[in-house]
Amino acid sequence: MRRILPAVFTAALALSPIHIAHAAADPVGMTSGFYVDPNSNPANWVRANGSDARASRIQASIASKPMARWFGSWSGDIRAAVSSFVVAADAADKLPVLVAYNIPGRDACGGHSGGGAGTPEAYRAWISAFATGLGNRPAVVILEPDSLADFNCMDAGAIATRTGMIKYATGQLRDKGLNTWAYLDAGNARWVPAATMASRLDSAGVRNVRGYSINVSNYYTTPESADYGNAVNAALPGYRKTFVIDTSRNGNGSNGDWCNPPGRKLGSTAQVGGPAELLVWVKVPGDSDGSCGIGAGVPAGQFSPAIAIRLIDGT
């Protein structure tokens, strides 16, 4: 069912000189709020551990909130996996958020979340099937977190190959995700200078998609992230794009560490508008960044109730 966009959002679109792919697509207006994934890692943990004293708090503060579903090599038949997720959200009249996370050499410099498709050819086949799975169902897609920021340990040839794969991905999402808003990841506020990131986004095909994402899996405050997003926008060559901010764990801001630091807190839940086009929980709160910090011994992507409770309490 198509719905009317919030007035503040439509006004922002009317006044902003932005370059938008598939301007007619409107997944926000087609749905009645963001999708709560019933099979998220926190939700699955709560169902399996109902007698645990922490379960009710994790259910109320995390598992019951809208958040992204991450897709990679673990997802099996990617077309079927994506289709199943967006069909379920569509049946509930809600807007799902998906993360495509399978670029070859993923997390090349950080190492904790390494992996990805084995070859550029395998990646192109994977992302093509991912985009096909979206079809005409409304969706938001975050494309390859860290992939344009994580260049420090890569040579020029590897960077060019990665940029080409990402540009191919943006074209697939543009052509096949008919009611999808896709956002190419732009790192975070203190990783890559805004002008440098703007150049990388342009080279990687950001013109093909809705915009870019800021602060995925990091902790910088929403105002700082918005400032960075606006600086990137100002540096784009002759056009502007919209951006989204990951607010899943930025309630207390950053202490300068990215890998399961203590003292972090849940941020604002998903919403349309504000200092960005969307505020969304991209990183699943409670999922470890790797075996480090307060998540020592917990592999990247695995849910930890101990981490989750500390995010709820801000400790």
From TrEMBL:
Q: Which residues form a coiled coil?
A: none
Tell me one Pfam family matched here: Glyco_hydro_6
At the top level, the lineage of the source is Bacteria
Record's protein name: Glucanase
UniProt GO BP: cellulose catabolic process
The residues the entry assigns to the signal sequence are 1-23
Residues annotated for substrate binding in this entry: W70, W191, N218, W258, K283
The alphabetical list of record keywords is: Carbohydrate metabolism, Cellulose degradation, Disulfide bond, Glycosidase, Hydrolase, Polysaccharide degradation, Signal
Q: Which SUPFAM superfamilies match?
A: Glycosyl hydrolases family 6, cellulases
Q: What is its EC number?
A: 3.2.1.-
Q: Which organism is it from?
A: Kibdelosporangium phytohabitans
Family that this chain belongs to: Belongs to the glycosyl hydrolase family 6.
Please tell me which top-level EC class this enzyme sits in.
hydrolase
| A molecular function (GO) term | hydrolase activity, hydrolyzing O-glycosyl compounds
